[in-house]
Amino acid sequence: MNKRTLNILFTDRTLLVLAAAILSVIIFTLTSFLYAGSIRDRNERLEVQLALILSESVDIIRLNKDVTSKEKKTAVRSAGIIPTLEQILKELGLKAMVIKPLGEKKVNEFTEENAELEIKEADLNHIVNMLYMIDTSRTPMKIKTALIKTTFEDPDKFILKLTVSRLSK
């Protein structure tokens, strides 16, 4: 009976073609399922990468805004550090006992201009306001040194000595 079945299978062309077609469909289906699975896995990995890139792009945009802001600050041209400090003192209603330039120094493509400032009989509120105004000034400035001493006559009044530098391009 085995011989007869093999004989029928190999001699009857329609059965042979049908068997080949069924085998081809099975192979094609298995290949499609495997390929679809690998595509699904790759798609999931790409979605994770896209989410990471999008989260990083928010940080990049924020950093870009910060850099642009700092560049605009350094591009601002003013008369110098002395007039800038005098303007801050004027806004606070303070008078400086000593305000003198200490010179300029070239740092890479920037110029650092230094000044010394001494204020006598300032209260703590004025000192805090002055430090805040220096920190948030349109012109980029930083406080290099600060010395705060109390006076003997009035312990609520202070002597403030600052060395302030201003950066410009």
Short description:
The protein has 169 residues and is of the alpha+beta class.
Overview of the structural elements:
This protein has 169 residues and is an alpha+beta fold. It folds into two domains: 72 residues; 88 residues, Ribosomal protein S6/Translation elongation factor EF1B (Alpha-Beta Plaits), CATH 3.30.70. The chain is built from four helices and four strands, in the order H-H-H-E-E-H-E-E. A four-stranded antiparallel sheet has the order 1-2-4-3. Strand 1 and strand 2 form a beta hairpin. The longest helix is centred in the first third of the chain and has 63 residues. It is rod-shaped. It starts with a helix and ends with a strand.
Strand content: 25-35%
Q: How much is the average pLDDT?
A: 85
Distance linking N and C termini:
99 Å
Q: Number of domains in the coordinates?
A: 2
Dominant shape: rod-shaped
Find the CATH topology of the largest domain. Answer: Alpha-Beta Plaits
List SSEs in N-to-C order.
HHHEEHEE
Oligomer: single chain
| Broad CATH class of the largest domain | Alpha Beta
CATH architecture level-2 label of the largest domain: 2-Layer Sandwich
